[in-house]
Amino acid sequence: MGKDYTEIVVESFLPTSTAGLHGKVHIRPVAGQDPFLPSMFVECSKELSEDYEVGTKFLIKAKVTSRKGKGVFIYSSYKWRYVVLN
């Protein structure tokens, strides 16, 4: 894992609109972790959005990145461990 990755707290949530998104539940950073903004989506293990209640918080290692056609988002490998905080 590269040194560009930072431990951040994220939470599962239900977006107001799922147009252009995959799935019903998504992951976003908790406020107050600049540059990890709550308006950004997190690409990570599907376990976080499928195996826990909406609103559950997790500690993950992640970084801000971008990919052509996806814009800026937060990435954490689906293979990496995470900690359930609540």
Description:
It is a single chain. The chain is mostly beta strands. The protein has one domain. Helices cover 5% and strands 37% of the residues. It has one helix and six strands. Strands 1, 2, 3, 4, 5 and 6 form a six-stranded mixed beta sheet that branches. A hairpin with a 3-residue loop joins strand 4 and strand 5. The protein starts with 5 loop residues before the first strand and ends with a strand. The relative contact order is 0.29. The mean pLDDT is 90.
Helix and strand arrangement:
Layout: E1 6-13, E2 26-29, E3 42-43, H1 47-50, E4 57-67, E5 71-75, E6 83-84
Parallel strand pairs: 3-5
Antiparallel strand pairs: 1-2, 1-4, 4-5, 4-6
